[in-house]
Structure formats: structure tokens, C-alpha cells
Amino acid sequence: MPKKEANSPKKSDFSTSKAGALEELKHILEQFQQKHGIHTYDVIDLLLKKTPEKKEDAIPVEIFAFPPLSALEAIVKYLKEQQWPFTKIASVLKRSKTTITTSFYHAQKKHPAPFAVSSPKFPIPLSLFSNRKISVLEHIVWHLSTFYRLSNSEIASLLKKHPSTIWTVYHRAKKKHESNA
Q1: CA distances (Å), origin 45, targets 3, 28, 42, 104
Q2: What distance, in Å, lies between the first and last C-alpha atoms of the chain?
Q3: What's the mean pLDDT in 88-106?
Q4: Contact, 147 vs 47, CB < 8 A?
Q5: At residue 129, what are phi and psi to the nearest 5 degrees?
Q6: Burial environment of residue 86 by CB neighbours within 10 A (0 to 12, 13 to 18, 19 or more)
Q7: Is residue 27 part of a domain?
């Protein structure tokens, strides 16, 4: 048997206890988030191959397929239809209550019928939209591309947008994620 060298790799700075292992995992996930711009819960969900469990924690991608509505208008309208108060929507999306009420008013004028979404195919976590450095559409496209591994043409079809628009939005989001890393 070969002898162990005196200069064997050093142990991690973290303890080998459960608490230490959890701290190490947390540290790794934070580094991954900074490097790739993918939130920790997305990484965990991807590893477990599951989607967010609570209905109110996710927005169905199908609501973004109504061309007259902006992405923010669609989110606000959907949440309002789910009986969310304006103050809660404003708080979760990190926007003013005035912006939320105005978005809802415009959404109602453009698309008065309620959204008919039975079982969402690709839920988008609501918490993504609290980062104001990236536009709502950039968040949607980035998430569909990185989390669900959809192509630009698949995303374009889901969102009723041109594939070149999706390409532009994705690359804009990618640059923003890289500059945050």
C-alpha cells in the first residue's frame, strides 16, 4: 500500500457535524447563486425535481400569453384574482402600492375576463420578481431557460413573443446576472 503523504489535502474549514455540514452547504449554495444568478430554492427544487408547493408562491406562465398585458400587469391581475390585497402584492413585488393599483387598473381595461388557468405547466416563483435590478420579463425568460431548460423558441411560444425578442431578453438578463456575480 502506498504511504500517505505528509501534505495530504486539508480538511474543510467547516465542522464535520450536522450543523457544520449545513453551514458548508449553505456556503456552497450562496456561491452558486452569486456565480449563476439562480436562487437557492431554485437549485434545491431542481435537485429534487419539484416545483413550488404553495399555489400563492408561484405564478403560472400561462398568464403571460395575453399580448395586450405587460408582465407586471399580468402578475398583479392574477394575484388580485387570487384575492391578494394590493398591499401584500406591493410588498412581495417590492413596488409601491400606487404602481400595483395602476397596473391592475390598466390590466382590467386591457383584459377584463379572469384568467382561466387549471394546472400550471411551468410555475414561476413569485419571489423572483422582488429583485428590481432585472425586469419582470427578464426574470421570466431567465427562469424558464435556466430552471426548466426551455429553448428560446419554446419560451417564445409560451409567452406569445417572437424568438428574437426572447433571445434579446435572455442575453440582457444573462449580462445582469454576470455583473452581479
Answers
A1: 43, 16, 5, 31
A2: 45
A3: 95
A4: no
A5: -80, 0
A6: middle
A7: no
Comparing 32-36, 90-94, 161-165, the range with the smallest average pLDDT is 32-36
Q: Write out pLDDT tens, residues 150-168.
A: 999 999 999 999 999 999 9
Give the integer Cα–Cα distance in Å for 161 and 181: 29
Q: Please give the tally of structural domains in the chain.
A: 1
Structural domain includes residue 28: no
Supply the range of the domain harboring residue 65: 58-180
What's the average model confidence in pLDDT over 119-145?
90
**pLDDT reading at 55 higher than 50:** no
Q: Which residues pair with 58 in a beta bridge?
A: 125
Which phi and psi angles does 103 have, rounded to 5°?
Answer: -60, -45
